[in-house]
Amino acid sequence: MNSSEIGGLVQHNGSALPPLSHFRLAAFDMDSTLINIECIDEIAAAAGKKEEVAAITEAAMRGEITDFKDSLRRRLALLQGVPVSALEQVLRERLQFNPGARELCAALKAAGLKLLLVSGGFTFFTRHVAAELGMDWVRSNELEIVDGQLTGALVMQPWGEICDGEEKRRMLEQCAAEIGALPAQCIAVGDGANDLPMMGAAGLSVAFHAKPRVREQAMVAINAGGLDRLLEVLR
Hints:
Blueprint: E1 3-6, E2 9-12, E3 25-28, H1 39-46, H2 50-62, H3 68-77, H4 84-94, H5 101-110, E4 114-122, H6 123-133, E5 137-141, E6 143-146, E7 149-154, H7 165-178, E8 186-190, H8 196-201, E9 204-208, H9 212-217, E10 220-222
Parallel strand pairs: 3-4, 3-8, 4-5, 8-9, 9-10
Antiparallel strand pairs: 1-2, 2-10, 6-7
Helix pairs in contact: 1-2, 1-4, 2-3
């Protein structure tokens, strides 16, 4: 595979990318892409179970656990009984936007693109992130909370229970169809194995400080600097 690299910004295949005006929609993963944390790991940390949960998260992100739904259920089961206050603490004290996230989203919106947030994480956090970045659509998982505590399960939503890689891809295609765009007119940005289906469907796939497998398969890999570096290759 031919590739060119400028200061940690890798473009595979070497060919010129379409201009920004070609694209109509950009889909983003949340955890470790738009924000600096894996929310489930931080909830686990507040409950004193970070090592157990983070080990499963890492294996899933690297693609070693191929069933994302199974890995998520295993991690959630460890969080049974965690109080909602732990989620509030993570949102207040730990969650920060990655460098360039606000700038990139603002630039894409200014160029007329619609924005989609698709996350294997939780609505408790995606609501905040989506509001801050001006997302047009959001798809993520709803934690089941009873008497102020996590039950270790998720709430069934109209579209299903778990937003995994296939659901991310389906949502990208559905939102593109809603605005009369082709998948080829979509950008997909992520960092983990469960982002590969939507990245494979999109006209432009972008890996941000990603796992090796994801970096290798993406058309553009941002390995140094912020998300807004994507603008360097989209004129």
